[in-house]
Specification:
Elements: H1 2-32, E1 35-37, E2 47-52, E3 57-61, E4 63-65, E5 73-79, H2 81-91, E6 96-97, E7 103-105, E8 109-112, E9 122-126, H3 131-134, E10 140-148, E11 161-168, E12 171-177, E13 183-186, E14 191-193, E15 195-204, E16 217-223, E17 231-238, E18 241-250, E19 253-260, E20 267-274, E21 277-282, E22 285-291, E23 297-299, E24 302-305, E25 315-323, H4 329-334, E26 346-350, E27 359-360, E28 369-372, E29 377-383
Parallel strand pairs: 2-11, 6-10
Antiparallel strand pairs: 1-4, 3-9, 5-8, 5-10, 7-9, 10-11, 12-25, 12-29, 13-24, 13-28, 14-23, 15-20, 15-25, 16-17, 16-24, 17-18, 18-19, 20-21, 21-22, 25-26, 27-28
């Protein structure tokens, strides 16, 4: 009886193993016959950046099978706004569908011939953007979904969607700010902030390299009104650090950057406070962070860029922004060189692109106007991403 029981159990185990093997083989067979957009590598969250400037941009895209086609298989490229919405939700982005007037598909059909593993290409052509699109502050994208047309090969879901993000080349006029042309911003009100973000693009011509050398070169700053506590003070250098190291002061604490900065180089800087956490981002990458006590940061209705003392450099500046919210890394990356003025939490947005004069308008419409002490030098048609 015991021997029969053991034999019966062994037979059951062998049967289960064979069934599992058959199941795995069946699954593998399906996978080897499926198609996907080659650039996704079967990653269902793939995006490709297309740099859109003064010339037409062309981007080929092909379909790949997991194994050579047994017979000719055709597929269709379909513009899919639902896929765009899914991507936005998954990645906390706000991409807008690229208007159909600004792109063309060479064809919507891709064919994989028998014996081949990749298809003929579908070519995407993106036209140059009109000023209305360039100045909107919106980010545009094109989502394509892959579908089987003749039904020979199924499409792998995780490789069926791909997003093309339009990265605009931003050229603008920029002021050169120094101690003589330092800026005062007259804000519409006083602030009591628990979370906030300050962003800017800067290019500075002098930085110390030794500890204490050319220290305390102030960038953007705001301080508490009389009788209250608070500050947001950003600068290059301090007495105890190198002059080419970035520092921010707030809530009685100081955070230094890990990165040492170069002169005559464009950088996007973001300082983010999440109440009890302070972070510095450089060109969209997290540089350093620290814990904070979580105090309210009170700020008066006067803020400044550059100072009359210690500031010995000339600094080009653009896209200066104050947010009353802590921005995520994805949000920072997506908006480094342009931004929608109507974005939630954007309190002040100085594009710094007037091209002449000593006044800097607030693009949000909140009226937080800036005025330089003297008319700064302006440099025209500058590519602020430094490329």
């Amino acid at each position: 009886m015991k021997k029969y029981s053991i034999t019966k159990k062994m037979a059951a185990m062998v049967f289960a193993a064979l069934a599992l093997t058959a199941c795995n083989n069946a699954e593998y067979s399906v996978l080897t016959n499926q198609a996907f957009w080659d650039d996704t590598k079967t990653n269902g969250n793939t995006s490709i950046r297309l740099t859109v400037g003064e010339d037409v941009v062309e981007q080929p895209i092909i379909v790949r099978l997991s194994s050579p086609a047994q017979q000719t298989s055709t597929f269709e490229a379909v513009v899919d706004e639902a896929a765009l919405a899914e991507y936005n939700q998954r990645n906390s982005t706000k991409y807008v569908a690229l208007p159909s007037s600004l792109y063309e598909l060479s064809n919507t059909e891709a064919t994989v011939e028998a014996g081949e593993i990749t298809s003929t290409p579908v070519k995407i052509t993106v036209k140059t953007f009109p000023d209305s699109i360039k100045e909107s502050g919106k980010k545009y994208a094109l989502a394509l979904k892959l579908k089987s047309k003749n039904g020979v090969n199924e499409v792998l879901e995780s490789g069926s969607k791909i997003l093309f993000v339009m990265a605009q080349v931003v050229r603008q006029d920029v002021p050169v700010i120094n101690y003589a042309s330092r800026i005062t911003f007259n804000m519409r009100k006083e602030y009591a902030l628990t979370s906030w973000t300050v962003e800017m693009n800067v290019n500075i011509d002098q930085l110390g390299t030794e500890i204490g050398e050319l220290n305390n070169q102030m960038l953007f700053g705001g301080w508490a009104p009389s009788g209250k506590e608070g500050e947001i003070y950003t600068r290059f250098g301090d007495a105890a650090i190198e002059g080419n190291r970035l520092q921010i002061k707030t809530q009685g604490s100081q955070l230094n950057s890990k990165q040492l900065f170069k002169t005559n180089t464009w950088y996007h800087l973001a300082f983010v406070c999440e109440g009890t956490k302070l972070s510095i981002y450089v060109n969209g990458k997290l540089d350093s962070s620290m814990d904070l006590p979580g105090k309210v940061v009170n700020l008066s209705n006067i803020m400044r860029f550059a100072s009359a003392t210690h500031f010995v450099s000339n600094v080009k500046v653009s896209e200066l922004r104050l947010w009353t919210k802590a921005r995520t890394q994805n949000e920072i990356i997506n908006d480094m060189y342009e931004c929608d003025p109507s974005s939630d939490g954007l309190e002040a947005y100085w594009k710094m692109n007037e091209g002449s004069g000593d006044t800097f308008k607030d693009a949000t419409g909140h009226g937080n106007e800036g005025k330089a002490t003297t008319v700064p030098t302006w440099i025209h048609n500058v590519r602020i991403d430094g490329k």
